[in-house]
Amino acid sequence: QVQLVESGGGLVQAGGSLRLSCVASGRTFSNYGVAWFRQAPGKEREFVAGIGWISESSYYATSVQGRFRISRDNANNTTYLQMNSLKPEDTAVYYCAARQLIVREHEKYDYWGQGTQVTVSS
What we know:
The protein is an all-beta fold. It contains no helices and eleven strands.
């Protein structure tokens, strides 16, 4: 089992920045890829970014490419999502999730955090 806890959400004006954190406990964190997903009211949960556990290759949704950056600190079992140039359409609950290999389909993830709300005002 892997337990995930997100933090760092909040209210920010358009153009601002936030950094989300996802702390893992349980099984060896370094053996898992970690992804961030988000879900806005009435919308499907969508892939935002992911980072692998072997090469630490990173992957991004087109909508956040160039604005968001995912990173991980295996020594502290933590994955970060740095979000810059935020837009109102980035408003959603953000979740981190873990599985061995990064994929973009949320149904394939084994472990999830409880989510953290990000609200971007215009």
